[in-house]
Specification:
- Helices cover about 10% and strands about 25% of the residues.
- With about 375 residues, the chain is mainly beta.
- The protein has one domain.
- Strand 5 and strand 6 form a beta hairpin.
- The chain starts with a helix and ends in a 28-residue tail after the last strand.
- It binds 2-acetamido-2-deoxy-beta-D-glucopyranose (NAG) (2 copies).
- One 2-acetamido-2-deoxy-beta-D-glucopyranose (NAG) binds next to loops.
- Keywords: Signal.
- It holds the Pfam family DUF1996.
- It comes from Kockovaella imperatae.
- InterPro entries: DUF1996.
Amino acid sequence: MINWNSLWSIVVLSSIVCADPFWVVRHGTLVESRLDPIIAPGVVSGHTHAIVGTGSFDPNYSYENSRNSDCTTANVDVDFSSYWVPALYAQWPNGTFTKQKFRGANTYYQVRRGTNEPIYEFPPGFRMVAGDPYRTTFDASVLAQDAVRYNCLGVTGPETNKFPAQYCPDGLRAEVYFPHCWDGVNNWLDGSAHVSYGAEGTFDGGGRCPDTHPKRIMGLFYEFLFDDVKPETGAKRTLATGDQTGYGFHGDFTNGWPTGLFSKIWAEGETCNVGFSLENCPPLKEVMTDISDCKYDGLIVDEEIGYTPLDALPGNNPVFDAENPRQPDLNYVEKAQFVRAVNGMPGPGPETPPPAMVSPTQVDSGDR
Ligand SMILES: *[C@@H]1O[C@H](CO)[C@@H](O)[C@H](O)[C@H]1NC(C)=O
Ligand SMILES: *[C@@H]1O[C@H](CO)[C@@H](O)[C@H](O)[C@H]1NC(C)=O
């Protein structure tokens, strides 16, 4: 049983000791599509993602393009980063799939480090991923695995690393904590090998960085909120990858922050240990804003993504779990093409109602 109030006081208490900045950027939704400029740059990606951040999101990432935007889903108007995770589906008893509503995201920025340890900004062009899309097992001693979590909103109980056992009346909050040690050289390496969790401690702690990744970067933590699948319908929670365990949740990040802002925030120390209250941190107060309706009109995959029942997940991903290993169709040929989006949709198709602009989760535990 978790008492959020007492957890919150632990956070406050430890912040008195560390006096380090901590802030949360809130997001409305941008687009859901098979786009992934890190793993599948320039092409249609393997599964549908729920994407927030810069309005200039594109199948190819560049820092310059991310910054060259007239809007962002963030409530910080200079944050033109992109943040994405797999979309959530329901698989119905007859085998069809519909997409669960994606409600928005919170992206947490935490300084977790040793005493007086230097910390480094994400350089322009920096990108990283956390989580493993096809993992169906769990080893609590591996920080990268423990960093993937679910918070079942509306019921009390601890966070879980797989899909929660019970229905979450106030939403399923999927969470992932990114590595916060960097090799100090590369903006990206295959398999996100340029970043690492600490050599000791917890996935979200300030444990010593390994010698291979000696430079501390911000601890980035995602909360993406989805409507949960109702168990009485007989439907099963299914990630866009086909994963029915939940262990394969993952997150992707491309940097679009202006150079120098983090350093200004760090210089404020404890003053910027503000959580959601950005107005209390002077460098963030200048750039905070209301969440605006940032319309996506970039490239999108021209396909149905599950507002009405689909016979197969977009990308033809078969379902899998621990007992039923993933068996992709080796004869599948990708035929989907990009079109220019109108308001985050492939066009005014009959079966694709435009997603309502949603306010992101206000159901915040304050537990980070
Ligand atoms: C992505 O970039 C590559 C290399 O510059 C380019 O050939 C390709 O057309 C781009 N793809 C899209 C979808 O813009
Ligand atoms: C399958 O079940 C879903 C959910 O009940 C329903 O909407 C859909 O029409 C069904 N499809 C078929 C082909 O029976």
